[in-house]
Amino acid sequence: MMKSGIYHQDVLRQSIRNSITGKPRKVLTTLKPDASRQEILTTLETNFGDIKTGQSVMEEFYNAKQEKYEDISTWAIRLETLIQKAINRNEIQEDNEDTMLTTRFWRHIHYTELRNATRVYFETVSTFEELKVKVRREEQEMAVCKGTELPKESNVLHIDEQMKILKDLTEKMNLMEKKLNEMSREKPSQNRN
């Protein structure tokens, strides 16, 4: 919208001001009414922007791994966000982006089974986007074949919880049966007296 040049600067400036709410809106009150778009954006960036250095963003990128419960799309988006921050801080060149994303993405997929099933794609596809689609497809197919999307450890925890509940219920039923037997023994002796 801003780069297209079809809107007047005043319209763009007012649109920016109108689209901002909450705490950032209060910050805008400190600016003069005729502040330029750049002044508005600079003030917002200063107060609310990401303040990490380029090196810390790169460190975060190189330490990134897919989380246990993170699906492939979420993992890819997280990596893309990190690399875009690094590009914005001139830590890496855009022409290296695809190679870096492809390598980090595939090598740090959490599930070894999925990584092994997609190795051929990693070695043959030419872009990160292609690899992402192929891995997502494989992830979906694996979930369908397994009949569940829950990780194995989650199922184990669920079974353990159910076994504990079953054990507690069994103990309570045994206790109730014991009390019932005692009550039934006491009742005939009371009727005789």
TrEMBL record:
It comes from Dreissena polymorpha. InterPro entries: PNMA (IPR026523), PNMA_C (IPR048270). Pfam families: PNMA (PF14893). Keywords: Coiled coil. Residues 159-186 form a coiled coil. Residues 26-105 form the Paraneoplastic antigen Ma-like C-terminal domain. It comes from the Eukaryota. This is Paraneoplastic antigen Ma-like C-terminal domain-containing protein.
